[in-house]
C-alpha cells in the first residue's frame, strides 16, 4: 500500500514513531496485524536500510511462493550475516512458508529480525516456537494515524483546510490510514474542499467503498475505466494492461498513477511492474461488478491468454477459474431462497453461515458436512459470497468479511474443530 511514508513519492510523510517500534535489538519477530488499509505494506517497505541485508517477500494469491521464500532464506543463511526478513500479507501459511519462517527463526545469525504482516492476529511465538518476550505485536491502535499525521496527509496533498475541518474528517475516519489518504486524493485540487469534506463526513455508508466510488466519479472516464478493469490483475505492467484493454500507453499511465500516489506502488525488484493496494483493488473490483457485471469474465479470460502465451500456466489457470466464477455469477443464483440480511453486504443467512467457516482450512465438502449440505452447494454459496463482497478468492472473502465485521476472529478456531 502506497500510504504516506518514507520514500513513497508525491505526498509522502514520514512516520518515525512506527519505525521506532520495529527497531529493538532484543526482538526476533515483529508481528504487524490489522485489517486492510492500515499501511502494513508501506511500513515494511519503508524499513530503514542498515548494515543488514533486507529480504522482502509478498506471498501471491495466484502462486504459492513458499518454496521460493525457503530458497531465499537458505541463501541468506549461507552468508552467515544477520539479516532482516519481511514477509508481507500472510493469509493461511503453506507448509513451505511455515518451514521458511521456522528455518529463519532457529537458524539465522544473532541479530537477525523477522517482520510479518497479516490481516488477522496470529500467535507467531507459538507457531514458530520462540519466547513470547522475543515477539512484538503491532496492531491497529499503533498503525492508526494520529491527528497530526492525518493533518500532514492533507497538507502533503496540497489540501487547504483548517484544523477544525481536519478534526471533523479525523472523527469520521477514526485514524484509518486508507480513509484519510483517499480523502486527501479526493480533496486535492478541489476549489472549495470544505463542501466535499462536508459530504464525506455526512455520508454514513461504508466509508472506504464510498470514498472509492467518489474518487472514480471525480476521475476522467479513461482513468476510471483503466482502474476498474485492471483491478482483476495481481501485478500490473504496461504490456499486460495494453493487452488486457486492447490499447496502448499503459506503461506511462501506471508510472503517472504511482507518481501521484493513487494507491499504486512499484513491485520491489521488478522494474515496470506495479500493484494496487489490496483493499483498493477489492473495492475497484466491487465497483466493476456493480457497473459492468458482464466485463469481469472477459477480462479474466483475456489475462489468461496473456499468461498462457508466456508459459505461466499457474497464473493462466487462476484467471480461467476466476472467469468461470464470474460467468456463473452473471447467470444468477437460483439456489438463494433465504431472506436477505440488510446492512451485511446483502448476504443471505445461508451465505453468512458459510462465510463463518471460510477462515478455517476446511474444504467445501467438510463445511457441507457441518452445515448439512453438499460440497457443491457450499461452493455455489461461496461464489455468491465472492460476488457480493466484490472479491475473487476465498482468502479475499475472509479478509473483506473481517473489515465489514462479518467474521469474528475469536470464533475461527472453534469453527474449524470437528464436531
Give descriptors for this structure.
alpha/beta; Rossmann fold; 22 helices; 5-stranded parallel β-sheet; disordered C terminus; globular; 419 residues; 3-stranded antiparallel β-sheet; disordered N terminus
Structure description:
The chain folds into four domains: 16-143, 3-Layer(aba) Sandwich (Rossmann fold); 147-218; 229-328, no CATH class; 349-416, Arc Repressor Mutant, subunit A. The protein has helices at residues 16-22, 40-45, 66-79, 95-107, 124-127, 140-143, 147-156, 163-173, 177-187, 193-202, 207-218, 221-230, 238-245, 250-259, 278-291, 295-309, 313-331, 349-357, 364-371, 375-389, 394-404, 412-416, and strands at 29-33, 54-57, 84-87, 113-118, 135-138, 236-237, 264-266, 273-276. The chain has 22 helices and eight strands. It is globular, with a radius of gyration of 22 Å. Helix 11 crosses helix 15. Strand 2 (54-57), helix 3 and strand 3 form a beta-alpha-beta unit. The chain is α/β, with parallel strands linked by helices and 419 residues long.
SSE layout and pairing:
Blueprint: H1 16-22, E1 29-33, H2 40-45, E2 54-57, H3 66-79, E3 84-87, H4 95-107, E4 113-118, H5 124-127, E5 135-138, H6 140-143, H7 147-156, H8 163-173, H9 177-187, H10 193-202, H11 207-218, H12 221-230, E6 236-237, H13 238-245, H14 250-259, E7 264-266, E8 273-276, H15 278-291, H16 295-309, H17 313-331, H18 349-357, H19 364-371, H20 375-389, H21 394-404, H22 412-416
Parallel strand pairs: 1-4, 1-5, 2-3, 3-4
Antiparallel strand pairs: 6-8, 7-8
Helix pairs in contact: 3-4, 7-8, 8-10, 9-11, 11-15, 13-14, 13-16, 16-17, 18-20, 19-20, 20-21
Amino acid at each position: 500500500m502506497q500510504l504516506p511514508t518514507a520514500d513513497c513519492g508525491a505526498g509522502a510523510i514520514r512516520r518515525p514513531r512506527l519505525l521506532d517500534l520495529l527497531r529493538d535489538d532484543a526482538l526476533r519477530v515483529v508481528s504487524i496485524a490489522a485489517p486492510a488499509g492500515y499501511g502494513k505494506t508501506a511500513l515494511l517497505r519503508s524499513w530503514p536500510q542498515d548494515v543488514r541485508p533486507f529480504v522482502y517477500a509478498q506471498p501471491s494469491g495466484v502462486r504459492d511462493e513458499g518454496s521460493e521464500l525457503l530458497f531465499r532464506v537458505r541463501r541468506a543463511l549461507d552468508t552467515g550475516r544477520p539479516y532482516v526478513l519481511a514477509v508481507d500479507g500472510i493469509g493461511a501459511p503453506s507448509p513451505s512458508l511455515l518451514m521458511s519462517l521456522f528455518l529463519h527463526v532457529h537458524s539465522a545469525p544473532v541479530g537477525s529480525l523477522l517482520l510479518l504482516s497479516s490481516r488477522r492476529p496470529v500467535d507467531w511465538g507459538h507457531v514458530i516456537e520462540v519466547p513470547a518476550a522475543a515477539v512484538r505485536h503491532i496492531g491497529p491502535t499503533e498503525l492508526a494515524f494520529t491527528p497530526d499525521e492525518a493533518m500532514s496527509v492533507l497538507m502533503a496533498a496540497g489540501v487547504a483546510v483548517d484544523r477544525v475541518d481536519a478534526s471533523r474528517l479525523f472523527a469520521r475516519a477514526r485514524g484509518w490510514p486508507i480513509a484519510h489518504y483517499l480523502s486527501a486524493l479526493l480533496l486535492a485540487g478541489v476549489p472549495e474542499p470544505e463542501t466535499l469534506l462536508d459530504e464525506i463526513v455526512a455520508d454514513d455508508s461504508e466509508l472506504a467503498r464510498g470514498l472509492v466510488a467518489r474518487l472514480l466519479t471525480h476521475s476522467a472516464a479513461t482513468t476510471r475505466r483503466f482502474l476498474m478493469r485492471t483491478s482483476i490483475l495481481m501485478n500490473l505492467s504496461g504490456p499486460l494492461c495494453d493487452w488486457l484493454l486492447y490499447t496502448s500507453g499503459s506503461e506511462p499511465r501506471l508510472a503517472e498513477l504511482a507518481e501521484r500516489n493513487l494507491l499504486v506502488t512499484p513491485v520491489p525488484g521488478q522494474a515496470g511492474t506495479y500493484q494496487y493496494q489490496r483493499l483498493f483493488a477489492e473495492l475497484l473490483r466491487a465497483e466493476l461488478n456493480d457497473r459492468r457485471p458482464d466485463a469481469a469474465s472477459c477480462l479474466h479470460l483475456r489475462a489468461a491468454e496473456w499468461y498462457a502465451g508466456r508459459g505461466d500456466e499457474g497464473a493462466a489457470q487462476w484467471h480461467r477459474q476466476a472467469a468461470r466464477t464470474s460467468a456463473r455469477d452473471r447467470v444468477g443464483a437460483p439456489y438463494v431462497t433465504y431472506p436477505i440480511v440488510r446492512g451485511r453486504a446483502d448476504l443471505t443467512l445461508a451465505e453468512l453461515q458459510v462465510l463463518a467457516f471460510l477462515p478455517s482450512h476446511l474444504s467445501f465438502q467438510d463445511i457441507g458436512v457441518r452445515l448439512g449440505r453438499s460440497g457443491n452447494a457450499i461452493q455455489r454459496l461461496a461464489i455468491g459470497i465472492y460476488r457480493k463482497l466484490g472479491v475473487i478468492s476465498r482468502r479475499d472473502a475472509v479478509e473483506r468479511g473481517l473489515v465489514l465485521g462479518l467474521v469474528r476472529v475469536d470464533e475461527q478456531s472453534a469453527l474449524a474443530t470437528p464436531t
